[in-house]
Design brief:
- The protein is mostly helical and 553 residues long.
- It is 59% helix and 4% strand.
- The protein has 27 helices and 5 strands.
- A 5-stranded mixed β-sheet has the order 2-1-3-5-4.
- Helix 4 runs parallel beside helix 6, helix 6 packs parallel to helix 8 and helix 7 runs parallel beside helix 11.
- The chain is globular.
């Protein structure tokens, strides 16, 4: 999208081009404008690091709003995000190691919640407006949670104040409102085909009964933990208890909507908002909420002579920090519990004669040090296995082929490339600045551009998987996805490609080097070669200069 905004003449033969204006996010317009003055990829790296730093500040701000004066609560909340919380139900986006709009919106979601909880409604409206400009979906999800909070007794009396702030929200959201209004009308869409295509391509976002049972188990466990937190704080911290109830209510609202639009009322607009994904967005504030509550509860027993209750709260504290990322760091819970328990027992015995308040304050900082030690060890362990990596376009294995395509083919050339997620081929379109016949990832575009549904289904059928002829049960999983569709692609023969080229424009076909074909080879790099295809009725594009046969030669 950024490349198209920078150069509107790109991708003249690619139907994806017509879907991009319907991808409503002001972020990429800003990035395209900034790229006039700064190199694109280093600039995106800087923006990514800035967004990540802002995220930890936002977590700190939310923790201070929930548990003012508690350093342990703030440190524990930031630890939740340092361990990278994972989506628990509909594979939404919380934190990912790339620069994209959903992760960039997360800090502003948390800031909006923090200021709303502190009754700074005007500031909350500004943050929510920024979220809307980044991703309308996340703004809608956050608004649901804010509205549920607004119904709590602590905020109902302030309804005039937060209603007035809606005007500021609308003012800040003007850029995205303008983008929405510029889209015009929507072309006719076969609703039944749209639902069926998404059942095969995006069931993990849209169809709750298709979610794996382990996802539901994790979600229900999370709800149970929040429910326990609600009960434990009902009298001592009533606001935190009510915020827990609001979180459960917001999730219930989102899931009810998800079931209705997936299996009841067939509404493109409602289904495209992917309501089940709001559960994953709400993991972020839930992580902070639970960490703050458990930290508060732990602080109440620190310094007391009762060892067993202290150890029980230490266990709950350890679990709360890593619950949302347990699949990635299963050993963190046990390690943190062991060292924290050792520190508490030794310290309590050593300071037995001191006042409970002094012991509690000292232990609070001791536990924070234990937490920091746990995270440092976890980071070094992760680096030991995967190593630090910063990936630019040049590090991609397909980059030499994309560079050749950009340099030595005409701008209207169309490439038939492996449609699966392996080897980075979904990025070939952006790296080469050339049109691509189809990829499996292109199917996500039908969520925001429904008129592309039939075109994508037809092109995937040409590769060898006809969605129209497939059937799935309520819990059935698609036999083909981004991980295995290349198996069908590699079975294509020259006759199949000629058949595709008789209907669509195809100029080049990229296949493994061992693939036999009568089409002439024009370029080779690594395990891939590029074959030139003659398209009936269209003059075949020819390289603008004589390409080398092997980029490594």
């Amino acid at each position: 999208m950024v490349e198209l905004l920078r150069d509107p003449g790109l991708y003249p033969s690619d139907p994806i081009r017509d879907t991009l204006p319907r991808y409503v996010s002001v972020l990429w317009w800003v990035v395209a404008w900034l790229s006039r003055y700064f190199p694109l990829e280093p600039m995106e790296l800087v923006l990514f690091l800035a967004a990540r730093a802002l995220l930890f500040y936002a977590v700190y701000r939310l923790a201070k709003a929930l548990a003012p004066g508690s350093f342990l609560a703030a440190a524990s909340s930031m630890a939740v995000f340092a361990l990278v919380p994972q989506p628990i139900l509909a594979e939404g986006t919380i934190m990912v190691s790339i620069f994209e709009q959903s992760g960039t919106a997360m800090p502003f979601v948390l800031l909006a919640l923090a200021d709303f909880i502190e009754k700074r409604y005007w500031r909350s409206a500004i943050w929510l407006g920024i979220v809307a400009n980044l991703t309308v979906m996340y703004a809608a999800y956050t608004t649901v949670y804010l509205l549920v909070i607004a119904l709590l007794p602590d905020y109902r009396a302030d309804w005039r104040r937060w209603v007035k702030s809606i005007w500021l929200l609308l003012a800040v959201s003007l850029p995205v409102i303008a983008l929405l209004m510029s889209q015009g009308g929507t072309a006719h869409t076969d609703v039944a085909l749209w639902y069926k295509a998404n059942r095969f391509r995006s069931a993990h976002h849209l169809f709750p009964l298709a979610f794996p049972l382990r996802y539901w188990a994790t979600f229900l466990l999370s709800c149970a933990l929040v429910g326990v937190v609600c009960l434990l704080t009902r009298r001592s911290y009533p606001l935190l208890s009510r915020l827990s109830v609001a979180w459960l209510a917001a999730n219930g609202t989102a899931l009810s909507m998800a079931f209705v639009v997936a299996y009841g009322v067939k509404s493109l607009a409602a289904a495209a908002s992917q309501p089940a994904r709001s559960v994953d967005l709400l993991v972020a504030p839930a992580g902070v909420l639970v960490a703050c509550v458990v930290s508060r509860l732990l602080e109440t027993v620190l310094g007391q002579p009762r060892v067993v209750p202290t150890l029980l709260y230490l266990a709950l504290w350890s679990v709360s920090i890593n619950l949302w990322s347990y699949n990635s760091h299963p050993e963190i819970v046990l390690f943190l519990l062991v060292i924290a328990s050792f520190v508490v027992i030794v310290y309590s015995v050593w300071r037995r004669e001191q006042k409970a308040g002094e012991v509690r304050s000292s232990l609070r900082y001791a536990l924070t040090i234990c937490l920091a030690l746990t995270l440092v060890i976890g980071v070094f362990r992760q680096l030991q296995y995967s190593g630090p990596r910063v990936r630019f376009a040049e590090s991609s294995g397909i980059y030499p082929i994309a560079l050749w395509a950009q340099r030595d083919t005409t701008r209207d050339a169309v490439f038939l490339v492996p449609p699966g997620d392996q080897d980075g081929w979904p990025s070939f379109r952006a790296l080469s600045r050339r049109s691509v016949f189809v990829t499996w990832k292109d199917g996500t575009h039908i969520l925001f551009a429904p008129q592309y549904t039939e075109e994508w289904v037809n092109r995937i059928a040409a590769i060898g998987f006809d969605i129209r002829k497939q059937k799935l049960g309520l819990r059935g999983r698609s036999p083909v996805d981004g991980s295995n569709i290349n198996e069908l692609y590699f079975k294509l023969r020259d006759e199949d490609v000629k058949r595709i080229a008789s209907r669509y424009r195809i100029d080049y076909w990229i296949v493994p080097v061992e693939k036999p074909s009568a089409f002439p080879e024009v370029f080779r790099h690594g395990k891939w070669k590029v074959l030139q295809v003659s398209t009936p009725g269209v003059s075949a594009t020819t390289p603008t200069s004589q390409p080398r046969r092997d980029s490594q030669r």
